[in-house]
């Protein structure tokens, strides 16, 4: 009897290392990581633009643009990510406008995922970046103004470098959150690693093992990111250390 | 450089009351007066960091009417011709000392980086900080930081350097480092406008004294007369006594 159990165990272990983990990792690199990285980069670009629009002091017609961006941030922060994914993937095909969009908007699952994750990340990260920009003392703007720098150059050369340094920890958190949130992409038919573990569990009747395995891989990915965050933080505050060493 | 009939209000508090002043080129003008009298507001108006509601500003051929919208090109001209040194230094923390000094010349004046660096090194030597070029601001003492700020301002070759209580954040010992640099600049006929509470220094450096109280100019003229003990203006006499000038003699 115990001999049978041991055989069973070694069989499972064998499958874990030669079959399950390779499949999970393959899906992880093909979908989880790519979805997360592409969406995060696009999200950061959206966030930066949004933050800059929202802190701008331009008036007139620009107020309408500001209102649109404010609405966007409100919308994506006040609705669940899963619902957003469903609307973009399952809902938009029914957005039929005669003459303009007779067939609705049909997106490939991966495209729908990228769009939703980018917009969602952009909404949250824009608030992070906006707060970071506003945390840079007003005197930095004045010092730059006093040597004749205009607003754009002051932002680019003086304010953003200081703001981005402050943003590294919260943005890293967003990125780690995004990696985990990509598991929701399973619900719009993307075969990312959580979906793969579900499919295998349905075949081998080992849900505990399969979901624990995929959890482990998520934890591994996120740990690598945490480590990267620590490295980035150190690199960005390098100036104090270096000159102390010289002194 | 001069301002005429300048009015500035914060909320419903009129901080500058129709004041007119001129700042002779090549001279040192020192603004003194009690706290909250409007000295900083005057100084900041000269660099357009503060915008009065009305009045005129003249600097060489440039004329600005504060009641009109100021053209970007005029703002740039003023900012190139005047440089501000702040009480809290306001160096750029993510740049080295050298980069702090070259930033304006390279980014605003379009100077070549190598030329800007060569000049920045001379300026740092002039303020006694040649060895700090590659340090970051947070490793400097207050006196060193303020001297870098002065070098940063000098690098733009401004006609006027405006200094708002440049040494109030410093210990007396560090204060002397900065005051020496300013005395040196005054001797070289660099036009200076200085707000200070240090009357001993004011007396030493000023060609012209402006006494501000409650948004009005109570004295505008020769420095020597201002400090003369027989000054007939009771308010000024009270102010000088309150700052216990006697103890400095
Ligand atoms: N941004 C602002 N908003 C509202 N009130 C202001 C502002 N800046 C200055 N004031 C007010 O204007 C008045 C003059 O201020 P200012 O800073 O010019 O005085 P000061 O003479 O430089 O004083 P101190 O010697 O304390 O620096 C003060 O009553 C101050 O409270
Ligand atoms: Mg002041």
TrEMBL record, chain A:
Q: Does the keyword Transmembrane apply?
A: yes
Can you tell which superkingdom this protein's organism belongs to? Bacteria
Note the Pfam families from the entry.
BPD_transp_1
> What sections of the protein cross the membrane?
31-53, 74-95, 107-125, 208-228
Xref: NCBIfam families: HEQRo_perm_3TM
Similarity comment: family membership: Belongs to the binding-protein-dependent transport system permease family.
User: Know the name of this protein?
Assistant: Glutamine ABC transporter permease protein
Species per Swiss-Prot/TrEMBL record: Lactobacillus delbrueckii subsp. bulgaricus
């Amino acid at each position: 009897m115990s001999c049978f159990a041991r055989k069973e165990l070694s069989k499972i272990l064998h499958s874990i290392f030669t079959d399950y983990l390779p499949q999970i990792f393959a899906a992880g690199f093909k979908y989880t990581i790519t979805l997360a990285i592409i969406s995060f980069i696009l999200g950061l670009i959206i966030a930066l633009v949004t933050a800059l629009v929202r802190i701008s002091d331009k008036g007139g017609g620009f107020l309408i643009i500001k209102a649109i961006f404010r609405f966007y941030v409100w919308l994506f922060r006040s609705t669940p990510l899963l619902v957003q994914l469903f609307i973009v993937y399952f809902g938009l095909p029914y957005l039929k406008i005669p003459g303009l969009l007779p067939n609705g908007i049909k997106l490939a699952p991966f495209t729908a995922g990228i769009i939703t994750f980018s917009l969602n990340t952009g909404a949250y990260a824009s608030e992070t970046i906006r707060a970071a920009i506003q945390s840079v003392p007003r005197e930095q703007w004045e010092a730059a103004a006093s040597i004749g720098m205009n607003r754009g150059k002051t932002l680019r050369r003086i304010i953003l470098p200081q703001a981005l340094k402050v943003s590294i920890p919260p943005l890293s958190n967003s990125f780690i959150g995004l990696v985990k949130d990509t598991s929701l992409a399973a619900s719009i038919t993307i075969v990312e690693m959580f979906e793969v573990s579900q499919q295998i569990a349905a075949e081998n009747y080992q849900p505990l093992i399969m979901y624990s395995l995929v959890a482990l891989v998520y934890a591994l990915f996120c740990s690598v990111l945490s480590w990267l965050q620590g490295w980035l933080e150190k690199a960005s505050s390098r100036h104090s250390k270096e000159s102390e060493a010289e002194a | 450089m001069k301002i005429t009939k300048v009015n500035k209000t914060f909320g419903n508090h009129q901080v500058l009351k129709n004041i007119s002043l001129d700042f002779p080129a090549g001279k040192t003008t020192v603004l003194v007066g009690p706290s909250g009298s409007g000295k900083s507001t005057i100084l900041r108006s000269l660099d357009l960091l503060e915008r009065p509601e009305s009045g005129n500003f003249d600097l060489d051929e440039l004329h600005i009417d504060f009641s009109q919208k100021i053209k970007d090109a005029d703002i740039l001209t003023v900012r190139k011709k005047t440089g501000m040194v702040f009480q809290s230094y306001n160096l750029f923390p993510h740049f080295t000392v050298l980069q702090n000094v070259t930033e304006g010349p390279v980014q605003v004046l379009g100077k070549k980086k190598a030329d800007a660096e060569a000049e920045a090194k001379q300026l740092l030597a002039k303020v006694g900080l040649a060895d700090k070029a590659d340090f970051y601001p947070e490793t400097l003492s207050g006196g060193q930081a303020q001297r870098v700020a002065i070098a940063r301002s000098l690098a733009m070759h401004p006609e006027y350097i405006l200094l708002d209580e440049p040494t109030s954040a410093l210990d007396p010992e560090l204060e002397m480092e900065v005051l020496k640099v300013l005395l040196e600049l005054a001797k070289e006929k660099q036009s200076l406008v200085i707000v200070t509470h240090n009357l001993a220094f004011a007396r030493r450096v000023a060609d012209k004294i402006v006494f501000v109280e409650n948004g009005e100019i109570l004295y505008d003229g020769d420095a020597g007369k201002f400090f003369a003990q027989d000054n007939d203006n009771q308010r000024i006499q009270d102010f000088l006594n309150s700052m216990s000038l006697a103890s400095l003699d």
